[in-house]
Amino acid sequence: MKSSSHTMVLEVTPIVQNQDRRSRLLDLIRIRGFASIDEIVREMSISESTARRDLDALEEQGSARRTHGGVLYIGGLPRLAEFGERQPAHWAAKRAIATKAATEIADGETVLLDGGTTTYEVARLLVGRSLQVVTNSLPVANLFAAESRTDLVLLGGYVSPRTGVCLGPYANELLARLHVTTTVLSAAGIDAEGLFNAHLLLAETEQAMLKAAGRVIVVADSSKFGRKSLTLVAPLEAIDLVVSDEGLSDAWRELITAAGPRLVVTPVDEPQPTAGPEATRRNRTA
Fold it and tell me: Mean of the per-residue pLDDT values for the chain?
């Protein structure tokens, strides 16, 4: 009897290809929290039009939310209103500042990270490094939760539903028992008096973070300078290093260095508005 063989050819349909690509895209956004269109195009090796179609599909599923220039991951974690609204603002400057700040942190350090959106960008760049990370931020902790090379300590306490940040007496008590190599802080505003925050309880937690640190790095884009907020967290002389962008005016550069901190200014791909001590009264009280 003569046998015959048949070869079965399996074709991958465009629908399956789309689902696979969008699944990989969702993983990228989930890990990073926020990704720009340019970043997605480069790392996924797809066209901008394909990226936008995929993002539209993910937004319809409720897994992501489109913003100006990129997308936020909103699936699988609580939707943090304030974090989502603030993260895309001045994103190019925040990413440039974070890239520079991450180079100031050496492997083996114990790093304390607050819940600011610029600090979150620093945290993203520290994923995969041999560090011990302490944070009061659920979004930051989520970046390191499955990272075997990083030891993670999450501070407890009251969790702000808008920012996903733990604060209050429980967080402060734990911080009083800790010592870290470096604390990285963001700011609601920076004035000649020092670093400001808009939330009284968070300001108290950040003051405890300062006391726990051997070194303090403040990451703030130039739009934050010349602005006051509700509570003074610390004077400028309590800060060791300020990392900002090239939009920072010469007057502010001189003022910061005269106060004591080392200043690092990094270029940004997009032009940033210049901020100086002569900023308007509206900005000073924002």
Answer: 82
| Residue range 118-141, pLDDT digits in tens | 998 899 889 889 999 999 998 888
Q: How many CA atoms lie within 13 A of 40 on its CB side?
A: 30
pLDDT band at 5 (very low <50, low <70, confident <90, very high): very low
State percent of the chain over pLDDT 90: 44
What range defines the domain where residue 232 resides? 91-284
Per-residue pLDDT averaged across 210-239, rounded? 94
Same domain, 181 and 276: yes
Q: Regarding predicted confidence, which is higher, 119 or 142? A: 119
Does 12 or 91 have the greater pLDDT score?
Answer: 91
Question: For every residue of the chain, which 3-state class applies, written as one string?
Answer: CCCCCCCCCCCCCHHHHHHHHHHHHHHHHHHHCEEEHHHHHHHHCCCHHHHHHHHHHHHHHCCEEEECCEEEECCCCCCCHHHHHHCCCCHHHHHHHHHHHHHCCCCCCEEEECCCHHHHHHHHHHCCCCEEEEECEHHHHHHHCCCCCEEEEECCCEECCCCCEEECHHHHHHHHCCCEEEEEECCCEEECCEEEECCHHHHHHHHHHHHCEEEEEEECCHHHECCCCCEEEECHHHCCEEEEECCECHHHHHHHHHHCCEEEEECCCCCCCCECCCCCHHHHCC
* Cα–Cα distance for residue pair 98/253, rounded to 1 Å: 19
What is the predicted pLDDT for the residue at 14? 60
Same domain (yes/no): 105, 28: no
Q: How far apart are CA 213 and CA 233, in angstroms?
A: 14
Residues 139 and 176 in one domain: yes
